[in-house]
Amino acid sequence: MGNPIIHFEVAGTDGPSLETFYSQLFGWKIDHQGQGDMQYGFVQEGSAGPIGGGIRHEPGGKPEVVFYVQVEDLQTAIRSALDLGGKVRIEPVETGDVTFAMITDPQGNSLGIIQLPEQDDA
What we know:
CATH architecture: Roll
Largest sheet: 4 strands, mixed
Low-confidence stretches: none
Number of helices: 2
CATH class: Alpha Beta
Number of domains: 1
Distance between the termini: 31 Å
Number of strands: 8
Strand content: 35-45%
CATH topology: 2,3-Dihydroxybiphenyl 1,2-Dioxygenase, domain 1
Helix content: 10-25%
Mean pLDDT: 85
Radius of gyration: 15 Å
CATH superfamily: 2,3-Dihydroxybiphenyl 1,2-Dioxygenase, domain 1
């Protein structure tokens, strides 16, 4: 097994607005800490799944990071992202195993969203 992803960060010039975006889009609980140029939002354990993460405030930096988030309904997630100021970077693609799309948040960070196929409960 390779090295697993255990943490992620999303950076942008307005950390608090990114915290609001991700919190509203995916229901993540974010613990905002700091003020001024020293701000960081810790994604609370278990809120975003088995890996930890954070939102980094970079007033003089640039947006960065790409990660994929599993969603129950891809089209609903895309509509929500657009309503929250995001954009579609790559329209939905069906691979046979999963359906995915890539969006950008209001700061220009790219992220993927994946819908897994429905499982038969029989």
